[in-house]
């Protein structure tokens, strides 16, 4: 296919650099500098998709971000499949593969097209709500069909191969948009030396200047833009970001800029390049120079391919050297759009007529049209387009002065392209993102930015200052203000000069009247992407949906990927008219981020896979990996879970690890436990306030178990704390609770008791902790130290000593979580692995066995020790878990948790209490999480007594053991409860003490 | 995304370094043991939760680890002031006593 | 009420849809109602409907300061499930679930309740313990649910990365087949239309700015637009504004209002089968009938009535979704928004009498209100009809925050929803 | 048997073994920087170096307490830096962390003596905590360093906001770090041991556009 609509010369494309691409499997050619849209138009592609609801053929309508129809599937490979790429924003590159997304077998000949013709009248807005209800059971089936029509493009089915990036930026001034206003703002501010970011969504900066016929400072506008950008790029303090959309404006002037780094060269970044980058910008001041979007007019069959925005026609001709048709009819409410007809004529094509809706337009453009000999039909409108897959004519009729009624006769005209302009809507999207409500201006015929608490300025068309002259002027002014507000001195600069244009007032017309009522006339589209018509909006208001939010939701107007850039104002105007209200009375239109859609990958940046969340390792981690350990995630830590040997099942491993520990010696990496160094003369008193038990008498050299509660009295952490000096303690916390506990101590110290002299420091990472546990633990340690007395008298249970272990200074705690003779050997983590290896060496004659968290859980459960977070869940206080012994109410200070655990509900009878559970069948292990009942044959909902919190097979005891909550459990020792399981089994268990092993605690004290 | 002036670091820092810790100026009752359940419950759970100016406690957790107070508009999210623990806010509601 | 049906649609099509009735009237306020519902969101409208339908109390007004269903009803991500842990909440949400299952027919309005199933993923051993605990409790409470391993999850959601690769690999999930999603706006409109048909007066753009009290009891409200309206009993169902309305009535609530954000992707061809939620990586996702991926996570940590949150929350949310579904990396986020959720310390609601006689509050649903809409309305209607908490509402008294009888559903309420 | 310092009422330990043959491993040991240093082009833009096995002490106390400031002055010969400042003298660096917290690094093996001197010299409420095993220092320098670090931290590290010598605690990816500017294009980052693998992966990934080489 040749590029039948391509002009021989002109535009900003490189006619010498052809690019090959495929569209729906057809090989086509465009030029370097094309967008996919301009290349498709050049090749005479009229239909780029079928509409969502009615399957109507749709063509390219716009040239920029506002395009509602041309959403394509991109990607040459499965992994690079990219859905919903807007053809008007995608640069063409060699080898690009694109396809349309709806329409089968092709968008030109869509089998569902008949639905649009026949079925459309059965699909008014809200028809889903009114049907598919009967019978109830059929909704699932109906829904399957509804879902078949869902979506435009498709997701890739493979993982993304590309790399994305986030970068943090701090700017003194961020200027959004590099059109005339943005460029002049940047020029005015550049010399200040301030950090300036100028971001623009297009591949080439310049915005409307790139297709403007005006002269600026005597230069053609596009050349002026190029030299302005050149000048700006000579400043080190100015960052120019093209292909970079400021997509979101957040509180306190935080904005995100979505930069497409390689999308213009291939569908997959090569050589390790970054495909897209999100700039996370904190700006002192922001200048919004985002321009405006042209509004199409709403009239009969206004969606037929070949109906375009007037400015888009100009852009395609002037920027891309494409004239998408031969015979143009232009309909306009304003002077500005006349340019499209002039450009069309200059391109050597026929202008059938300019249809001006105004009764008596008198601007310079009208004069120019007349002097060019173009036919101008005033006080009239195109009430309907004709054609099937392409416009082939229009019906033009006179209308009254307010644009509500057809007054004259209806005349048909032939044409193959129809351009329309209903004026311009300021691109206020970003100004709305932080909650500022836009304000309607009758002058502008549109919404302009409202009041805001952000440090935000705006310049140019976003303010409704549409003329080039005012854009340049406001840009310069606001650029200077912004830079001065940001604290920089700069001398005044005059705005670039351009000749003023004498424009006549535009007409506030949105919906073109038809000879038939809206409901009976041809379809008149407002939101093209969601197939929302004028009659749908009228119907919605007739049914009582009177708020604009209701109208939008009932009809889906504005919910597309274009977020109603072309349709929202028209829709509001139609709703307002139907409700007999003004537009501002009907409501405002609020935009949310994003301005245009943003790739998930760009938001994610490098925070995926191994960088999704930190993996925290101990100093011994490498050894665990080498030993084939499997790991358990505990918080961000990777803890060895168990160390399987070849051929072992998990139960085999646990049996081996547990038996070795009970019978000889095991070793555990306990480095992950939180450790907090506490110093100061009030340290001891502080402990007494945050722990439930007593600390007044803990002597130097001693350790004690402590239980911590919230102010509600519920258990929230536990651990052993050692007294290192009269004013110095080392607190240990649970692995997952370390940060929470430190923060807890700090908040009380800083906000409640700042007078207390105490400092808290995390030393979790500093110490490496190897716990050796088992009857041979002493023998192992004895081989490694000659300066620590290890006999039971010198080094008692719950003591700590310092000395040298394996040649390394160490602090050894004789505390036990297994109930065996245990030593926790703490050394500076720099020597952690060296010491660990020495311990393994020394222990080898005792078959020292590394055990992981799972065996640790079994061993402690045999002893009835709890794990906070597993045996507690934030809803139990110490008495519930039979830890009343750790609560000392007689302490002078009303410690944290004391009052809470005395509330009425906390002292009521029949609370759930933690007990031991012994299954009647010794081998049966009750699954953790099983729920107890007294009577397993009762009907549902059953009366549940509590759940199993911990449950294991204990190789040492040769039977299963469990702990669980049971209502009034402590007074039911010896009674039987039942656990009905999902698989139909019922496990019978006896309530017992949770201490299954060595109830007197002799083994840990040997 | 807030930009928060830390009164201890004495400069603005990104919100990600901070953590919100609820309403400020809620002192622990001096004699908990003699509080009624209702009084204790009010202390634990009941908040002014205003639409408008709110005094709130934040911590510069990834930073200087200091807790401090912010007066913030809960609708516009504008931060009126930040001040150290123990200091009094300059911005208050008419009927408010801090 | 004009009945909706496929046949009716055809009939109306022939007359160019020019004869559809209004879905609700625009009434003028009477001087006094038996019950005034403050707040015309899903819960308030459901309350009004069940007052009329179940309790024959039709002299009811709903006053709404904005438009019907315009608060969190319009802003949530539409997940419906009942797999809560504790008996009190499980019974309440399951009651709601049963009502959901016949709701379209009951209201003659298709709320598009789609029982696609909900997966609550487990990524750690403790997650799996909690999942087992909850599913066992659900089962014995008569609520459907099963525990799946990673393979089972993969069978339901083939695009999810259930391998060992992710930072927090998927170990399994709870699955509630009867759970799903519904069309949020339709729920509000359906209840409004049905309540209106039973005689309930609905007032939009009518803002309550005070309560009329006599001897410490509430006897009416004052409104900005319509002045005083008296009532026998008043029920406030003003999610996102509860604290402000309570202050008007002269008391505080155990509530903090936080922003909760959500987002949608561009519409893509169907790729997800069910709803996936994960507390550990912090996010949930489903796909709407239009093709959008509907995504959310937890609340922002600070108080906020701005219907906006922090961008970092959105970032973490999307990271989580891409971590679970790496193939979505090239899909694009279309739009984000925020609601205001009233959170309580135990992630359970308040349906309660208050310190003011005749004044009742229904609030504190946190991130999980939508799914409860029918159950909440049903139980609150009974509470208003009786003048004291219904059996389902009873555990949810605001005074539980005094005596400590909290119902901690943080695990089940999880990331939101 | 306890080595209890009377004034501070606590135990002091030198945690460095006398036996120099005991293997010490820095938090980045597993990365094997020595091998990386020999790989790839040596002319890459960004140069990374670990200042391995320094002794790290956390000092707590009040900056407005004269006993503390004079104590520091007498022991270290510098005045205690205030807000976001650092001082450096003869291989010893004091970094302000918080109004009542400083991080001191000192050459390997000198920490214990310093700790004792500080305890003896400061007669006021303060704390000294040895955290040498828990963290390490990385320096990054060369063209592009600042841009690379902007991917790591949201802090505004532009020289106008962060001149040489300024030190901040901020985010490093999702971990935290103490970042100090030591030259126009030179920074020093203190990271925690358990996060060191993550931080290394993050750093490496952030350098992907610039290329990096490891200095030993």
Automatic annotation (TrEMBL), chain A:
Annotated signal sequence range: none
Domain (FAD/NAD(P)-binding) ranges: 172-426
A Pfam match: Fer2_4
Domain SoxA A3: 522-604
Record carries keyword Cytoplasm: no
Domain GCVT N-terminal intervals: 620-887
Alphabetically ordered keywords of this record: Aminotransferase, Oxidoreductase, Transferase
Gene Ontology terms, MF aspect: sarcosine oxidase activity; transaminase activity
Domain (Aminomethyltransferase C-terminal) ranges: 912-998
A single GO BP: tetrahydrofolate metabolic process
InterPro entries linked: 2Fe-2S-bd_N (IPR042204), BFD-like_2Fe2S-bd_dom_sf (IPR041854), FAD/NAD-bd_sf (IPR036188), FAD/NAD-binding_dom (IPR023753), GcvT/YgfZ/DmdA (IPR028896), GcvT/YgfZ_C (IPR029043), GcvT_C (IPR013977), GCVT_N (IPR006222)
UniProt xrefs under PANTHER family: AMINOMETHYLTRANSFERASE, AMINOMETHYLTRANSFERASE, MITOCHONDRIAL
Family, as annotated: Belongs to the GcvT family.
Record-given protein name: Sarcosine oxidase subunit alpha
Organism lineage: Bacteria, Pseudomonadati, Pseudomonadota, Gammaproteobacteria, Thiotrichales
UniProtKB/TrEMBL annotation, chain B:
Highest taxon of the lineage: Bacteria
InterPro entries to which the protein is assigned, alphabetical: SoxD, SoxD_sf
Gene Ontology molecular function: any one: sarcosine oxidase activity
One GO term (biological process): tetrahydrofolate metabolic process
Coiled coil stretches, renumbered: none
Pfam families per the UniProt record, alphabetical: SoxD (PF04267)
Gene3D superfamilies: Folate-binding superfamily
Name of this chain's protein: Sarcosine oxidase subunit delta
Organism of derivation: Leucothrix pacifica
TrEMBL record, chain C:
GO MF annotation terms: nucleotide binding; sarcosine oxidase activity
Pfam family name, one: DAO
Signal peptide region: none
Chief location of this protein within or outside the cell: cytoplasm
GO cellular component: cytoplasm
Gene3D superfamilies per UniProt: D-Amino Acid Oxidase, subunit A, domain 2, FAD/NAD(P)-binding domain
Domain Rhodanese: from-to ranges: 35-79
InterPro entries: FAD-dep_OxRdtase, FAD/NAD-bd_sf, Rhodanese-like_dom, SoxB
Subcellular compartments: Cytoplasm
High-level lineage: Bacteria, Pseudomonadati, Pseudomonadota, Gammaproteobacteria, Thiotrichales
Official protein name in the record: Sarcosine oxidase subunit beta
Source organism superkingdom: Bacteria
Catalytic reactions on record: sarcosine + (6S)-5,6,7,8-tetrahydrofolate + O2 = (6R)-5,10-methylene-5,6,7,8-tetrahydrofolate + glycine + H2O2; sarcosine + O2 + H2O = formaldehyde + glycine + H2O2
Cofactor: FAD; FMN
UniProt entry keywords in alphabetical sequence: Cytoplasm, FAD, Flavoprotein, FMN, Nucleotide-binding, Oxidoreductase
Its EC number(s): 1.5.3.24
Gene Ontology terms describing biological process: tetrahydrofolate metabolic process
NCBIfam families: soxB (TIGR01373)
UniProt organism field: Leucothrix pacifica
Family assignment from sequence similarity: Belongs to the SoxB family.
Keyword Oxidoreductase: yes
């Amino acid at each position: 296919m040749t590029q039948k609509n391509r002009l021989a010369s002109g535009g900003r494309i490189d006619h010498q650099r052809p690019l090959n691409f495929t569209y729906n499997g057809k090989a086509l050619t465009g030029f370097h500098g094309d967008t996919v849209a301009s290349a498709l138009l050049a090749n005479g592609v009229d239909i780029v998709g079928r509409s969502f609801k009615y399957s109507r053929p749709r063509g390219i309508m716009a040239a920029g971000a506002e395009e509602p129809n041309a959403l394509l599937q991109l990607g040459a490979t499965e992994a690079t499949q990219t859905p919903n790429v807007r053809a008007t924003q995608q640069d063409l590159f060699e080898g690009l593969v694109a396809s349309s997304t709806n329409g089968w077998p092709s968008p030109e000949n869509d089998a569902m097209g008949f639905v649009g013709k026949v079925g459309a009248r059965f699909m008014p807005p809200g028809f889903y709500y009114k049907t598919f209800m009967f019978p109830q059971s059929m909704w699932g089936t109906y829904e399957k069909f509804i879902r078949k029509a869902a979506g435009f493009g498709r997701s890739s089915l493979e993982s993304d191969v590309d790399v994305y990036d986030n970068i943090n930026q701090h700017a003194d001034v961020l200027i959004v948009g590099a059109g005339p206003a943005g460029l002049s703002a940047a020029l005015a501010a550049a010399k200040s030396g301030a950090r300036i970011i100028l971001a623009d969504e297009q591949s080439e900066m310049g915005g409307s200047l790139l297709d403007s016929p005006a002269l600026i400072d005597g230069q053609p506008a596009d050349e002026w833009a190029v030299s302005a950008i050149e000048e700006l790029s000579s400043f080190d303090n100015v960052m120019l970001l093209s292909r970079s959309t400021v997509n979101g404006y957040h509180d306190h002037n935080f904005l995100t800029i979505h930069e497409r780094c390689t999308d213009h060269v291939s569908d997959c970044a090569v050589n390790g390049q970054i495909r897209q980058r999100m700039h996370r910008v904190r700006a002192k001041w922001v200048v919004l120079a985002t321009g405006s979007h042209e509004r199409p007019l709403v009239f009969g069959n206004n969606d037929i391919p070949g109906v375009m925005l007037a400015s888009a026609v100009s852009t395609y001709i002037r920027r891309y050297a494409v004239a998408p048709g031969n015979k143009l009819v232009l309909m306009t409410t304003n002077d500005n759009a006349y340019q499209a007809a002039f450009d069309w004529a200059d391109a050597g094509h026929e202008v059938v007529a300019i249809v001006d809706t105004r009764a008596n337009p008198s601007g310079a453009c009208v004069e120019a049209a007349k002097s060019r000999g173009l036919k101008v039909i005033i006080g009239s409108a195109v009430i309907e387009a004709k054609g099937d897959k392409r416009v082939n004519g229009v019906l033009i009729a006179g209308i009254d002065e307010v644009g509500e009624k057809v007054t004259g006769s209806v005349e048909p005209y032939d044409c193959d392209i129809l351009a329309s302009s209903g004026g311009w809507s300021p691109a206020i999207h970003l100004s709305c993102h932080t909650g500022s409500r836009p304000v309607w201006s009758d002058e502008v015929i549109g919404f302009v930015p409202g009041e805001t608490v952000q440090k935000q300025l705006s310049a140019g068309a976003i303010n409704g200052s549409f003329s080039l002259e005012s854009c340049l002027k406001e840009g310069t002014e606001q650029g200077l203000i912004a830079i001065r507000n940001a604290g920089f001195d700069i001398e005044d600069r005059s705005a670039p000069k351009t000749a003023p244009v004498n424009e006549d007032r535009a007409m506030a017309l949105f919906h073109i009247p038809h000879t038939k009522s809206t409901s009976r006339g041809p379809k008149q589209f407002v939101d093209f992407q969601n197939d929302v018509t004028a009659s749908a909006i009228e119907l919605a208001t007739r049914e009582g949906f009177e708020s604009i939010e209701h109208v939008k939701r009932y009809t889906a107007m504005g919910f597309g990927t274009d977020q109603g850039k072309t349709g929202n104002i028209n829709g509001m105007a139609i709703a307002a008219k139907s409700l007999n209200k003004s537009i501002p009375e009907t409501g405002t239109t609020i935009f949310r981020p994003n301005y245009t859609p943003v790739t998930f990958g760009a938001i994610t940046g490098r925070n995926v896979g191994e960088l999704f969340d930190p993996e925290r390792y101990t100093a011994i981690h490498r050894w665990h990996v080498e030993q084939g350990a499997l790991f358990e995630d505990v918080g961000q830590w990777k803890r060895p879970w168990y160390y399987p040997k070849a051929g072992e099942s998990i139960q085999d491993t646990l049996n081996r690890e547990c038996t070795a520990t009970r019978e000889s010696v095991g070793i555990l990496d306990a480095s992950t436990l939180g450790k907090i160094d506490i110093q100061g003369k009030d340290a001891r008193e502080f402990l007494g306030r945050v722990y439930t038990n007593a600390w007044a008498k803990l002597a130097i050299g001693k350790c004690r178990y402590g239980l911590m509660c919230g102010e509600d009295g519920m258990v929230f952490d536990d651990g052993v704390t050692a007294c290192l000096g009269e004013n110095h303690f080392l607190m240990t916390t649970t692995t997952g609770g370390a940060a929470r506990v430190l923060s807890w101590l700090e908040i009380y110290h800083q906000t409640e008791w700042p007078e207390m002299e105490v400092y808290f420091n995390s030393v979790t990472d500093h110490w490496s902790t190897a716990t050796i546990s088992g009857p041979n633990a002493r023998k192992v340690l004895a081989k490694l130290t000659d300066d620590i007395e290890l006999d039971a008298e010198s080094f008692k249970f719950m003591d700590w000593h310092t000395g040298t272990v394996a040649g390394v200074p160490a602090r050894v705690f004789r505390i036990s979580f297994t109930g065996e003779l245990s030593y926790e050997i703490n050394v500076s983590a720099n020597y952690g692995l060296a010491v660990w290896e020495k311990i393994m060496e020394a222990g080898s004659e005792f078959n020292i066995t590394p055990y992981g968290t799972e065996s640790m859980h079994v061993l402690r459960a045999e002893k009835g020790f709890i794990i906070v977070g597993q045996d507690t869940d934030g809803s139990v206080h110490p008495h519930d878990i039979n830890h009343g012994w750790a609560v000392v109410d007689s302490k002078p200070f009303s410690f944290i948790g004391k009052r809470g655990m005395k509330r009425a509900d906390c002292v009521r009878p029949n609370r759930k209490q933690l007990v031991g559970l012994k299954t009647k069948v010794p081998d049966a292990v009750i699954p953790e999480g099983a729920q107890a009942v007294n009577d397993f044959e009762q009907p549902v909902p059953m009366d549940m007594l509590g759940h199993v919190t911990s449950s294991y097979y204990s190789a040492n005891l040769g039977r299963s053991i469990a702990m669980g909550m049971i209502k009034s459990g402590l007074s039911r020792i010896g009674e039987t409860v039942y656990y009905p399981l999902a698989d139909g089994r019922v496990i019978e268990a006896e309530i017992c003490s949770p201490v299954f092993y060595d109830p007197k605690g002799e083994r840990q004290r040997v | 995304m807030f930009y928060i002036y830390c009164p201890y670091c004495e400069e603005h820092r990104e919100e990600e370094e901070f953590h919100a810790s609820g309403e400020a100026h809620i002192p622990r009752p001096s004699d908990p043991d003699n509080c009624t359940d209702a009084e204790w419950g009010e202390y634990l759970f009941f908040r002014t939760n205003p639409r408008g100016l709110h005094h709130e406690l934040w911590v510069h957790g990834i930073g200087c680890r200091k807790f401090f107070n912010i007066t913030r508009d809960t609708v516009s999210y504008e931060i009126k002031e930040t001040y150290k623990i123990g200091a009094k806010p300059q911005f208050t509601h008419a009927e408010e006593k801090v | 009420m004009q009945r909706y049906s496929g046949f009716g649609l055809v009939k109306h099509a022939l007359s160019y849809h020019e004869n559809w009735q209004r879905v609700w009237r625009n009434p003028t306020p009477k001087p006094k109602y038996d019950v005034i519902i403050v707040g015309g969101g899903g819960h308030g409208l459901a309350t009004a409907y069940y007052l009329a339908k179940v309790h024959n109390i039709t002299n009811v007004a709903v006053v709404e300061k904005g438009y019907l269903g315009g608060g969190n009803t319009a802003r949530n991500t539409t997940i419906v499930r009942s797999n809560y842990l504790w008996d009190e909440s499980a019974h309440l949400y399951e009651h709601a679930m049963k009502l959901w299952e016949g709701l379209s027919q009951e209201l003659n309005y298709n709320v598009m309740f789609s029982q696609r199933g909900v997966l609550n993923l487990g990524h750690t051993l403790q997650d799996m313990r909690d999942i087992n605990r909850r599913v066992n409790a659900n089962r014995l409470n008569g609520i459907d649910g099963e525990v799946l391993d990673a393979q089972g999850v993969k069978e339901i959601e083939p695009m999810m990365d259930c391998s060992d690769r992710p930072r927090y690999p998927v170990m399994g999930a709870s699955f509630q087949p009867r759970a799903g999603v519904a069309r949020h706006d339709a729920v509000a409109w359906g209840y409004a239309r049905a309540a209106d048909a039973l005689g309930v007066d609905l007032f939009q753009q009518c803002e309550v700015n005070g309560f009329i009290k006599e001897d410490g009891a509430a006897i009416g409200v004052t409104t900005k637009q319509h002045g005083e309206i008296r009532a026998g009993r008043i029920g406030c169902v003003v999610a996102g504004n509860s604290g402000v309305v309570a202050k008007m009535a002269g008391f505080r609530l155990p509530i903090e209002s936080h922003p909760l954000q959500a987002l949608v992707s561009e519409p893509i061809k169907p790729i997800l089968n069910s709803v996936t939620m994960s507390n550990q990586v912090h996010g949930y996702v489903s796909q709407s009938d239009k093709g959008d991926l509907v995504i959310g996570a937890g609340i922002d940590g600070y108080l906020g009535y701005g219907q906006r949150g922090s961008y970092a929350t959105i970032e973490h949310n999307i990271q989580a979704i891409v971590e679970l579904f790496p193939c979505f990396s090239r899909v694009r986020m279309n739009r984000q928004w925020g609601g205001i959720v009233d959170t309580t310390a135990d992630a359970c609601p308040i349906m309660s009498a208050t310190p003011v006689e005749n004044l009742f509050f229904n609030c504190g649903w946190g991130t999980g209100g939508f799914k409860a809409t029918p159950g909440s309305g049903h139980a609150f209607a009974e509470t208003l009809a009786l003048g004291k908490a219904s059996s389902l509402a009873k555990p949810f008294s605001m005074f539980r925050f005094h005596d400590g009888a909290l119902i901690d559903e943080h695990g089940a309420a999880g990331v939101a929803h | 048997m306890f080595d209890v310092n009377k004034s501070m009422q606590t135990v002091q330990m030198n945690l460095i073994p006398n036996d120099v043959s005991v293997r010490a491993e820095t938090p980045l040991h597993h990365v094997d920087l020595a091998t990386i240093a020999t790989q790839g082009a040596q002319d890459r833009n960004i140069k990374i170096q670990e200042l391995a096995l320094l002794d790290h002490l956390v000092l707590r106390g009040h900056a407005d307490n004269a006993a503390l400031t004079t104590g520091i002055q007498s022991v270290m010969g510098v005045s205690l830096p205030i807000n976001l400042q650092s001082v450096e003298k003869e291989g010893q660096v004091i970094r302000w962390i918080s109004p009542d917290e400083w991080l001191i690094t000192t050459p390997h093996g000198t920490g214990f003596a310093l700790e004792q001197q500080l305890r003896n010299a400061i007669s006021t409420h303060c704390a000294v905590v040895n955290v040498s095993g828990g963290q390490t220092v990385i320096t990054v320098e060369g063209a592009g360093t600042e841009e690379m670090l902007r991917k790591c931290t949201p802090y505004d590290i532009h020289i106008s906001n962060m001149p040489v010598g300024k030190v901040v605690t901020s985010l490093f990816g999702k971990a935290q770090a103490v970042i100090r500017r030591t030259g126009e294009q030179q920074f020093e980052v203190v990271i925690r041991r358990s996060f060191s693998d993550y931080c290394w992966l993050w750093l490496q990934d952030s350098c992907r556009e610039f290329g990096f080489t490891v200095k030993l």
